[in-house]
Structures are given as structure tokens and as C-alpha cells.
Amino acid sequence: MQEDIVRMQKIVKTFPGVKALDDVSFYLKSGEVMALLGENGAGKSTLVKILSGVYPKDGGTIEVFGSEIREMTTQKARELGIAIIHQELNMCQHLTVAENIFLGRERTRGLVLSEKEMNKEAAGILRRLNIDLDPEEPVGNLAVSKQQMVEIAKALSMNARILIMDEPTSALTSKEINDLFTIIKKLKKESCGIVYISHRLEELKHIIDRVTIMRDGRFITSMNFDQKRMEEIISHMVGREIKQKFPRVSCRKGERILEIRNLNAGRMVRGINLELYEGEIVGIAGLMGAGRTETTRAIFGADPKETGQIFLDGKEVTIHNVEDSIKAGIVLAPEDRKKDGLCTKLSIRDNIALPNLDVLCGKLGIVSRKKERKMTDETVDSLKIKLANAEVDAGSLSGGNQQKVVVGKWLARNSRVVIFDEPTRGIDVAAKVEIYNLMNELKKKGIGVLFVSSEMPEVLGISDRIIIMCDGKITGEMAATEATQDQILKFATQFDRKIS
Amino acid sequence: MNSKRQSWFKRLFAVRGMGQVVTVGVGLIVMCVVFGIINPTFFSGKNVANLLRQIAPILLIGIGQSYVLITGNIDLSIGSVVGMSCMISATMMTKGLNPWTAVLLTLMCCLIVGAVNGLLVAKCKLPPFIATLGTMTIARGVAQIVNNNYNTDAIGDGAKGFRDFFYYGKVAGVYNTVIIAIVLWLVFNFLLSKTRTGRHIYAIGSNIEASKLSGVNIVATTTKAYLVSSVSSCVVGLVICATSGMGTMDAGNAYEMYAVAASVIGGVSTLGGQGILIGTVIGASIWGVLQNGLQFAGAPVAIRNIVIGAIVVISVLIDVIVRSGKFGKKNKVENQVLDQEALS
Amino acid sequence: MKRKVLAAVFAMGLIASMAGCSSGQKEAVSKVQTTAAVTEAASTAAETAKEEASGGGAYKIYLITMDQMDQHWVNVDAGAQKAVKELGNVDYKWLAPDVKDDAKQIECINNAVAGGAQAILLAANGPDAVTASLQEAMDAGVKVVYVDSAASLPAIQTLATDNKAAGKTAGEEMIKALKENGIESGKIGIVNVNAATASTVAREEGFRSAFEGSQFEILETQYGEGDAAKSKDIAANYITQGCVGIFGANEGSTVGTGNAIQEAGETVIGVGFDKSDMILQLIKDGNLLATMAQNPDVMGYEGIKIAVNALEGKDTGAENFDTGVSVLTKETSN
Q: What is residue A243's predicted lDDT score, i.e. its pLDDT?
């Protein structure tokens, strides 16, 4: 009989103005992987941050390994063997892999750092976890997926007995995800207790033993994981039944809106030709590093291109920069919402107005507040963005609502083609559906929709037509109705050269 | 034989920040050669000794500013602390106090400034620009008030030992000031590159949030950097007092900017997290060589200002271009090699 | 939020303290008024002054110098205060910016006028920069007397060292001493302050004029900002270059020159400007030949007297009053 190694009971946490956790209970047994599920804003991150000592709790009790902990600090959590892998990468870019792993607990001989020892130890840690990295490499030189592996190695090197993983796979390649799951299985055998937070519900079946579901800061239920009960789990998370995870509408395919001919932009965009028609959604699938984001950026004018012609509604448009693209009517919702899609410190209204200032300004370049407010209200209404008021910082919205603002600012100017790059990354199940509905609305209106996604089910579920890219080139194209996951993968790995 | 030499070379460049250091190092050598050609007196033993002594104070304040820059902050109070140090020590000595007691008391006053800077920035979370601008004004005010708004009288014959120690004395043909600068450089370089504190200094400059979550004491680390800065400023103030034999209220004017220049030329990034102190040595040397060499070359003032300004701007440009481009779009896996097994 | 407020308060405190103007008693005068209000206040002040004068009330006279740190200005103020004490009918205030700066000095002028000044003793930082605000002041009836450095606007009187003449004297002293040592040619170095301050520029001009027709070569002037340490470095470099004589154009430059000569131990002739304890020490020890000591206290003393005369409608004498320099050498300074 496995014992509880963590018992959190009746946890209360209030932030100014909002009750983040209301009487939440959470139990974790040794040797099990517990998925903590819930929509964005359900309180999952807050709960684990309290467990790991980042936030102090306002009420309730925490018991770890049988003893009650009155005041949890990061120091105490570390001593108890609690390690947390945060959702956002927390790496010091200028420091090496080894230096990051040992940050805050450097080994010294007297005053002097034992650099050689730490490097050796780090190499050992990485090897044991089957991570192929040089411990003396500056983290900043590594790809994001590798950085996340370093983050994982760091947590694991602290001999954690309780490991909390918050969206650990969001930036990993499939191979690395497999490696991670292997590691998790091994840790389970060693009686480590793991809390696993993820929106990628399809991954759960590989490793999850039990699930705890939260909603709106409250504990809803906890149960053994069973793949067959997925719908039940989702409805608990959302509080209502989600009839269709991927709402599909069929439209008549109309005129050709967009044609790209021979687009070349560096190593990642080579000889791209594609077409987009009214009434269809085109999804671009592929592995990380295939050049999909680079292609969208080249079309949008964010990156310079070497060759390439773009035709909109039959007429050629010259796009040298983003301004040209916006004026022509081609817009992009970028991959990194917070960094590239929004000005998080500005209000929602400012964000929506930003690319539309030419429409909102009078002759002297003065912004008409009245027009601005009207545009903001219309956008918020039509996209059903949930907010207290439009003056709030855009950075404070949930992921799904943020995405709506990102798209909303383009819709206000009647764009012709909307390109989405990873439209539902980091967004919970219910909000995902809202974004899909939004894409369908655009499709119905006759606006061209092109999207890049790494989530296969999403690509299969929403697109009408799928384009697959590999290593900078388009390797395959098919109708969604004929596509299968295996087929897509086949094209996604069709490299020019064999890699041994 | 060949392979052995190559690995030494490669290892040199593997040290982070060495690239820029070597580049400006070469620039320094070229500069010296040019000045020497224009006026061979530049290479005379006397001038070399003088030149090194002129570089020493710049190196010291450069070290202090480098420490603070690496943590991702800035110290604008350096010049005023230099002035304050000069005035406090001189005033006390003219009032008859033993020079070494004066030095001790001066050091304590400067440490207070450093501590205040650290607390304002790390604990009160004031932007470093504003916080150190404030202490800069206050320190300058103290420098003026300490002798009632006058420059001091001569510090007297009793201070000869003090003046020799900090400025006029020599050991084996090298001026004491240079030795003091070298010793302090060795100490601070060791601290920065080989100790836990040093590692934490780089860490909070690189990613303060990650450091906090890893248990690094942000307040302590930030304050330590500011303390190093105020200690070096204190020493420079004492050097100036020893040089002039009196206290001058506007000593150290604009020194914080020279300190930034020396740091940046040497490869310390104003964005934090990067830079090595050997670079600051080169940066300070370039600064000193310019001041000295342009005089020997007989260059009119306007040329001198333009040359110096241009070098600083170019160095910062190189810094910004290289640094921000380096860790930018690393999401895009450019050279990621994917196996055939990278499926399912 | 709290942090932002703290930062804002801090910043405003800084700006207030840096607003440039402070009085001799360390009160910060930071009122900023519009020109119209200033002229208004001044003309009413001038009228009240005339009434007061005939009734024997106190005259409001302001001294505005270039900064408050240099001992030179402190001495001007001392001389002025002496006259004020003697006369007994002057309400006196000393204003100056914290650093030498044209804009800040203009602020001080405006503040003085707004404060009801009837006469201003001014040491102009930049001869042309202040003319506009000075003209306004004069139009409003304020009497202007220049001390040490005149602006390019004609005023009641200028009490100053004839810097050019003093510089020439310095040069002549140097040539004399060099000749006594049998040196008729060689390099000469000048350590000046900056290219903008009129007084030191004039001194250099005068110094150079003494060398006309001689065999000496004057090297490119170097600027040490009046900082004693910088000046010392510059002078040391001159000595390395083989200079036989070095001229320091103000107090800081002179201290630096003396220190460099002391260290070098060679027979370099150093001549400087201004008087201070350190400079006298250097002369006593034989490291400096001589210094041109100005008489700033005379400027202040006579300046107040002239200003009062002007306000009382009496004769103020010639336009230029040379307050002269004393050549202080080892013999004469004892």
C-alpha cells in the first residue's frame, strides 16, 4: 500500500482581489504520477508554487512525509526533497549547463568553486538521464528543447523525492518527450512522487496513474486515470460537456485568396509554393525545426526573403516589411504570444488599437478616443474576450484571452489572410475550442486561414487541407479527410540526406 | 607540437568574453605603436611608468563598475564617492588626524554608500539609475560640506608616508599606485571568477528570476557588487588626495562614465551577465593610453574628445550587436540533427 | 505601486536639488517664474528701492558667481560682506549654481531679479549666454556690476583682474627665471581649464604674448578642467616631453603643475594663478616659481561700494577697475 507523501488540506490563497485557492485538497502517494488538471486560471500553478515554497499559504495545512510544515519556503522545500520544474524556462543564458544545474548550491572548497568537480558531476547527471549535452556549453547557445532538458536535469539532480513538473513537454521534440517519460517511469520505480501538470491530455496515458481536477480555484475530484474516461475528465475540468473537441464546419471552397511562389528565405525556407482558398483552413504540420515558423514570418515580412512572389486575390503584392504585409491584408498571430504578439505592459485597449492607429487617428495624428473605445468594445464583444475592463494590462489575461486579443487587433481592420503560429499553445481545453470556433468564423467569412501547429490532433481536427514541411521544404500535401497521423509523420521526416 | 599549440589557443578563446578582449587588446597594441611612432618620447621609461600610474585609477573604478554592470545594474555614484573620499580623508588630515585613521574612517563612509546603493536597488527595488543618481548627488554634497564648501589646505608633512604609499612611492621602478591596482585586481578577479559570490553575480545579471528561484540571495549579491564599487572608488579618492596633497571638492567628476567606458570597451555587457575583468584592464589601458598619447601627439582637444567618444560608441555598438543577437531566436533549431527515430 | 511612488519622490528630490541655484547660506532657491512676472517684480522693486533709498532703507544687492566651490568666489563673497558690514544699509545675498553652467547661472539671475534685487554683482560664466536675461534685468531697473568676468553687455563697471595683463606678467616672470638659469630656448607647456572660460583663455593669451619673438616653443595646450589630479598628469607628461617651463592657468592647474614639478625633481619653472594654502606650500618648497594671486576680496568689497553708489545716483568712476594681481614668490609670500 503506497503511502501519502504529500497531504495538502483545505488550502486557501488570496491575491489582491481574487481568491486563487478555495479550500483545495491534494494528496500524492510515493511512486505515483499524479496529473493535476484544470483550465487556465484553475489554480494549478498556484497550488504547486505553495507546495514548493514560492508562495506562502493563507490557510490550510501541508504535510510532507508525515510531518506538518507550518511555513514552507524554497529553502525548506529543497531540504525536504521537493523540486519543481517551472513552466517558463528559468535558465541563466550566460552560464553553462553545469553552472545552471548547480546554481544556488555550488560546491566549494573553502572559498573556491570546485569547477572541475561540478562539471564532472553534471556530465554524470546528464548521462544518466540520457541527455546528450556538454556541461560546459553556455545555456544560451542551446535550443529551447535542450534548455528544458537542462531544467529537468537540474530538478532531478537535487535528489528530489517529490517532483513537480509544470508543462514540461511544451518545447520538447518527440524523442525528448520519450526520453522524459522513460526517466519518469524510472523515478516511479524509485518511489519518487510526481505531480504532472499539462494541457496535452493525449500524453497522459503514457505515464499517469491518477488525476486531480481543479476548477476555478476549487478541488473538484480525484480519480484513477482511465483513458476511456477522458470525456468525463474534460467535463470535470470545464464544468460542462464539451460536445466536440474539434468543431468542424464545412464551407464551400471559393476563389483563390493567396498564392506564394518560390519563397526562399535562408536555410529554413526553401522553394515554398502554396495556395490558400476561400472557405478552407490550411494547417501546416511538421517537426520542430522544419521551418514552418520561418515561412510564416517570411510571408508576413518579419524576416527578409531572398526570392518569392506573393499574390493576393490574383494581384501581386510587394512585401518588404511587416507594414507592407499589414497594409496588404496579411496578418500574423505569432508563436510566442507574450513576447511577440502583445505588449503585455500596455492595456488591452492599447494593444487592440496599436496596429490600427492609422484608422483611429485624425488629421493631426491625434488618436480619437471615441473610435478607439468603439473598436475595443466591438472586438471584445465579437470575440467574447473575458475581462474586467479594457484598461487592464494585456499580460494579466489568461492564455486563451490573450490569444483572442492578438487576433482581435487584426480583425478590426478587415484583414484578408490570417496566419496563426501555434494558436492554442498553452491554452486549456475549453479556450482551445473557442479559438477553433474563431478560426471557423473567419473561414465562414471568406477570410483565408493558415495555421502552423505541432499538435497533430489539432491539425487533423481543424484543417481542411494539410501541408507538411520538413527541413525547410514542403514535402507533402493532402486533404484532411484522407490524412492519418502516420502519413503526416512520414512526410515530416522526409529529409534530403540520410542522417546516421 | 602543432596540435599542442592549437589546443592552448582554442582554450584561450573558449573562455567566455575572450573574443572581444583579444580584439581590443590588439587595438591597444596598435594604438601604442602609432603613438610611439608619432612621438618616440611616448615609449620612454619615464612615460611608461607615468602612463601605468595614470591607468591605475581608471582600472580601479572600472573594476567597480564592471562588477555592478555584470549584475545588470549601474553605479552612477562612483565619481562622487571618489570626491567624497578625497575630501573626507584630506579634511581629517588637515585637522591633525593620523593619515591611516583618516583612511579607515574614509573607507567606512564609502562602504556606507555602497551598502545604501545595494539596499535601494535590491531591497527597495528602485531602478539602479535613479538610486545611484541619488547617492551620487548626496555624496557630492557630503564632499562639499565636509570642509565647509572649501577645498582643503595642504595635508601637511605628516602625511608624507600616506602620499608616498598611495601615489609617489615606487617598488622596483613601478609606482605604488600601479601595484595597489594590480593587487586589488587580483583579489577582485579571484572573487569574481572563482568564488560562489562571483558566480551569483553573473547569475543575477543573466536571469534574476531564475537566480531567485534557485535560492540565490539577490539582496546580498547586489549589495556586494555595489560595495566593491564603493571600495574601489574610495581607494581612487585616496590616490587623488595623495596626488594633490589636498582635498578638492570636484575630484572624480564624471568618473562613473569613464568607468563605464573602460568596462564596455573591455567587453562587459551593459545588459548584464557577461564580461571578464581582464577586459576591464584593456579598457582602462586604452583610455589611459588615449589621454596620454594624444597629449604626446600634440592633438588639439577637439580631436581628443571625438576620438575618445567614437571609441566608446563603437565598443557599445559591438556589445549590443553581439550580445542581443547571440541569445535571441534560439527557439529556431537551426542545426538540430534529427534521427530517423524521432517519430511517435 | 509603492515602489513607483518612492522612485518618483526620489527623482523629484534629485531634480529639486540639482535645480542649480543655491545661496551662500545654503538655501535652495528654486522658484521658476515667467519673464513677465520677473520684470514686473523687478520694476516694482526698483521703485520701492528709490523710495527706500531716499528714506535710507536697505538696498537689496545680490552677488552671483560661477559656482560656490572655488575659494576664489568665497573670497569675493568675503570682500563683499566686509563692505556690507561697513556700509550697514545693504541687504546682501550670494547666489551661485552648484557647477559652472551658463543655463544655471541664468536661472540664478532670474531668481535674483524675482527676489527683488536692486543691484547685481555678476561674475559671468559665459560672456554671451547671460546677456539676454541681464538686459531684461537692466530694463527693469536693476544695476549691474561685473566682478571677475564681464559679460558682453555694457554695465556700470567691471571690477576684474586684467587677465591678459596678468598672464603676460606670468610669462615674463617665467622668461626671466629661465634666463637666469641660462635657458633661452626649449619647450613650454600650458595647463589650462577648458576652451570656454573667458578668464583663463585670456590668461593664456597674455602668457603666450610674453613669448612672442622668443626661442621657446609652446606646445599644444592641454585642458585639465581645473582638476588638480588631471592637471598633475598633464604636467608630468609635459615634463617627460622635456618642457623647461609649465604654466597653470587657475588654482587646480597650478596645484597639479607644482606637484608634478616636485615629483620630477628637475629644474622646471612652474608659474601659476590664484592663491591657496597648497600653492603657497609649493612655492615655499621651491616647486613653483610664482603665482599670480588675484584680489577677489577687492572685487567684492569695491563692487558693493560701486553698486551702492550707483543706486544712490552718485559717481561710479571708470568703466574698468583693475583689481590687479600680486606676484607671490618665495620672497614676497612670506
A: 61
Amino acid found at A101? I
What is the signed CA dihedral for A297, A299, A302, A307, rounded to 10 degrees? 110
- Classify A180 in phi/psi space as left (phi over 0), alpha (psi -120 to 50) or beta: alpha
Query: Where does a domain end: A238, A268, A303?
Result: A238
| Listed residues A238, A265, A290: the one ending a domain | A238
**Would you say A308 and A272 are in contact if contact means Cβ atoms under 8 Å apart?**
yes
B208 to chain C, minimum CA–CA distance in Å? Answer: 18
Nearest to B17 by CA among B320, B206, B275: B275
A195 and A74: one domain?
yes
Architecture, CATH, for domain B54-318: Orthogonal Bundle (1.10)
Mean pLDDT of C166-195: 94
Residues 6+ apart with CB under 8 A from B138: B80
Q: Domain of residue A286: give its range.
A: 256-492
Q: What is the ipTM of this complex?
A: 0.84
Q: Which domain holds residue C155?
A: 21-161+296-323
Q: How is residue A308 annotated by DSSP?
A: E
Q: Which residues contact A449 (CB under 8 A, 6 or more apart)?
A: A276, A280, A281, A282, A417, A418, A420, A439, A442, A443
d(CA A11, CA A62): 8
User: Phi and psi at residue B338, in whole multiples of 5°?
Assistant: -105, 130
Do A24 and A157 fall within a single domain?
Answer: yes
Q: Are residues C114 and C178 in the same domain?
A: no
Q: Which amino acid is at A146?
A: K
> Please, which chains are in contact with C (at least 3 CB pairs closer than 8 A)?
B
Chain B residues near residue C24 by CB distance under 8 angstroms: none
Angle between helices B18-38 and B301-326 (to 10 degrees): 160
- CB pairs < 8 Å spanning A and B: 121
Q: From CA A387, how far away is CA C301, in angstroms rounded? A: 74
**Contact in structure between B118 and B219 (CB atoms under 8 Å):** yes
Which residue(s) pair with C145 in the sheet? C121, C157
Q: How many CB atoms lie within 10 A of CB C28?
A: 13
| C68 closest CB neighbour out of B149, B295, B301 | B149
Residue B331: its pLDDT value, please?
34
- How far, in Å, CA of C193 to CA of C205, rounded? 13
Task: Give the C-alpha separation, B263 to B62, whole Å.
Answer: 6
CB contact under 8 A, B195 and A108: yes
Q: Are strands C185-192 and C222-223 parallel, antiparallel or unpaired?
A: parallel
d(CA A179, CA A489): 19
pTM of the full structure: 0.78
| Residue of B192, B213, B340, B341 best to disrupt the A interface, most CBs of A under 10 A | B213
Chains A and C touch (3+ CB pairs under 8 A): no
- What is the H or E stretch that residue C312 is in? none
The verdict on A227 and A288 lying in the same domain is no
Contact B192, A109 (CB under 8 A): no
Return the residue of C nearest to B153 by Cα.
Answer: C277
Question: What SS3 state is found at A33?
Answer: strand
Query: Shortest CA distance to C181 belongs to which of C282, C248, C259, C266?
Result: C266
Instruction: Enumerate residues 6+ apart whose C-beta is below 8 A from A251.
Output: A278, A279, A280, A443, A444
The domain that holds C275 is classified in CATH as 3.40.50.2300
Query: What angle is formed at CA A394 by the lines to CA A388 and CA A397, rounded to 5 degrees?
Result: 60
Model confidence at A451, pLDDT cuts 50, 70, 90, reads very high
Contacts of B124 in chain C (CB under 8 A): 3, 6
Q: What share of chain B is helix, strand, coil (3-state, %, to 5)?
A: 75, 0, 25
Per residue in C219-243, pLDDT (tens digit) is: 999 999 889 999 999 999 999 999 9
Contact C220 B240 (CB under 8 A): no
Cα Rg, chain B, nearest whole Å: 22
